[in-house]
Amino acid sequence: MTTASVPEDTPGPPATKSGAVGEPVGGDATTPTAYLDVRDLRIHFPTDDGLVKSVDGLSFRLEKGRTLGIVGESGSGKSVTSLGIMGLHTVGQYGRRKARISGEIWFNGKELMSADPDEVRRMRGREMAMIFQDPLSAMHPYFTVGAQIIEAYRVHHAVDKKTARKRAVELLDRVGIPQPDRRVDDYPHQFSGGMRQRAMIAMALVNNPELLIADEPTTALDVTVQAQILDLIRDLQQEFGSAVIIITHDLGVVAELADDILVMYGGRCVERGPAEQVFHAPQHPYTWGLLGSMPRIDREQTERLIPVKGSPPSLINVPSGCAFNPRCPYADVPKGGVTRTHRPELAPVAGEEGGRHHSACHLSQEERTRIWTEEIAPKL
Amino acid sequence: MTIPEQPAPSDEVVPLLKVAGLVKHFPITKGLLRRQVGAVQAVDGLTFDVRPGETLGVVGESGCGKSTMGRLITRLLEPTAGTIEFEGKDITHLGVAGMRPIRRDVQMIFQDPYSSLNPRHTVGTIVGAPFKLQGITPEGGVKKEVQRLLGLVGLNPEHYNRYPHEFSGGQRQRIGIARALALKPKLVVADEPVSALDVSIQAQVVNLLDDLQDELGLTYVIIAHDLSVIRHVSDRIAVMYLGKVVELTDRTSLYATPMHPYTKALLSAVPVPDPGRRKRGAASGGSGGRILLKGDVPSPIAPPSGCRFHTRCWKATEVCRQQEPPLQALRTGHQVACHHPENAPA
């Protein structure tokens, strides 16, 4: 980077944004908090090469019964965010692989970052659960699938093994494993990929969690199995009314499941809003890039794809100002005195009902709407 | 990937590659004497042509034999039975020396850009290796030619002396493409060329393949599991299930009027990036016209009798369990192997 860079590496406690009166993006502190309210979350990892800012100021809310889709490419900070909400990072000041975390995570009226770790541990798995991407490495190969589900249940419920086993069989049946009373004694390697993912879902659901985080739940699966799993997640959510966060790079998957979408780039949210809005009236050049990059199965496409040039930024050396600036085709459009080193904040998109659609771009809204409707949308 | 003039599907077009009855069984052995107790029937009777200048897309779920097919037609695996003809020449059982001149014309792009490049070789060595192996000195020397190739695939020719770890995934895939193009091949077989890449990078590589085809007149066989990518790149598409081609036709008919129930289910399972569609579908009942297949793909060690799809097919009848449907053209240029095809002509 040739631009005068802001001193980034701050030793000691992570720098919180100065003058954070209320919240820059997460709504003001006076309003009652949502079911899940993440405020200015920052997760940084010190490494030999520098400070990796995986998540750098992320705020969002999620209500019960809703599904939030977090979309982004590899290295955009999606998975780190989910592990952060679950409290699964090793936190500390020094040493390798220790994360420096700041911000607030309000869950069901409790703030998790300042809460007693034992209390968070009791909540984890019971009130909030996670479906991991790769079920083969997330499950223990030495224990049967049943034993692992039973353990997850008995950690949080004082019941005997027999009751817990009945519960495990019931859950395996619920997620569509054939002959669950027999398969409960199988080891993970005896299951196919789709069945393992179902077993993971059963494990996550065994305590009826109210918040379910699914990190790339179908990435390793074939389309026909993916369709089964997505249907299952949707059914289970309707049944239990839980809040679901689905993390994926596949825009098709979020379009199927999510009510709201959050687009991440370089550790920050560049656009968020209701799914219909983000797909049909996107307000950020990166979102346009994602939509233009994607071959469509539902249309005869004779035009070339419109890829985003370049590659995603290094999280050690995130471009100053807007992180998307080096790849943005509209970076050179004059923006009334705003320089490249200025970072755009998330701002509400005017004219959208409900005020839930936000975008972080220096282009004026008229300009963005014009580019989308005249230049991008006709080519998709 | 559109080609300027669509060759008319007539007998006049001499196929570049002709595959007939191709079979590959991997033996399963047991005990000290390595007695054969069974076989993984990875590919079990494939017949298709690849015409010059076209892109044939091969699509299917994991374990359907599509990658084995790619390795058979490039002769990286020895076929169990069947014939492979390249430009009219039978190459089915050619040895290493016999294959060497043909290797110039048939090249492969691999899926994983991390494991398909030797980490201890520089990019110059990797892309220049085909010249060394074939004993060719290109005009102007190897270095100059390698730099031209790097430029062709959109890399900086100055990066000749760098190592693979200095490149991102998308750039590495470009290195693999440059290597495949070094000898000016006629046929390029690409096995999942973009599945390891991020969406925005995937589009760059798809466009690159597209441009190179126009520029160099290449013929592609592109193997992928992603039906959206296949729709974008292919002229004709073969759908595989458990070692067999179940449907083979041009892109438009496959996506507009799929005839095999498996193709129909596969297409309906792909999530569509349009949030409105789901709600419209849900309002009219069902999950947006989606056909949910039961269970998993059966094991290729003991595939089902008759039609291999009958265990998961909602239209299966007694005849499907007993008789294997042949792959036949039910409409002009639309081959399908099914006893009860969808969208069949009256």
Question: Which helices and strands, and how do they pair?
Answer:
The complex is a heterodimer of chains A (380) and B (346).
Chain A: E1 36-47, E2 50-62, E3 67-71, H1 78-86, E4 100-107, E5 110-111, H2 117-123, E6 128-131, H3 135-138, H4 145-156, H5 161-174, H6 180-183, H7 193-205, E7 211-215, H8 223-240, E8 243-248, H9 251-257, E9 260-265, E10 268-274, H10 275-280, H11 285-293, E11 347-348, E12 358-359, H12 365-376
Parallel strand pairs in A: 3-8, 3-9, 6-7, 7-8
Antiparallel strand pairs in A: 1-2, 1-4, 4-5, 9-10, 10-12, 11-12
Helix pairs in contact in A: 4-5, 4-7, 5-7, 7-8
Chain B: E1 17-30, E2 35-50, E3 55-59, H1 66-73, E4 81-86, E5 89-90, H2 96-103, E6 106-109, H3 123-134, H4 142-152, H5 169-181, E7 187-191, H6 199-216, E8 219-224, H7 227-233, E9 236-241, E10 244-250, H8 251-256, H9 261-269, H10 275-283, H11 318-322, E11 328-331, E12 334-336
Parallel strand pairs in B: 3-8, 3-9, 6-7, 7-8
Antiparallel strand pairs in B: 1-2, 1-4, 4-5, 9-10, 10-12, 11-12
Describe this structure in words.
The complex is a heterodimer of chains A (380) and B (346). Chain A is globular. Chain A is 30% helix and 19% strand. The N terminus of chain A is likely disordered. With 380 residues, chain A is α/β, with parallel strands linked by helices. In chain A, the strands form 2 sheets. An 8-stranded mixed beta sheet of chain A has the order 6-7-8-3-9-10-12-11, with helices on both faces. In chain A, strands 2-1-4-5 form a 4-stranded antiparallel beta sheet, covered by helices on one side. In chain A, helix 8 links the parallel strand 7 and strand 8. Chain B has a domain of 241 residues: 3-Layer(aba) Sandwich (Rossmann fold), CATH 3.40.50. The longest helix of chain B is centred in the middle third of the chain and has 18 residues. Chain B is globular and about 65 Å long. The two termini of chain B are 32 Å apart. In chain B, 46% of the residues are buried. Classes of the chains: A alpha/beta (380), B alpha/beta (346). Chain B: GO terms for molecular function: ATP binding; ATP hydrolysis activity.
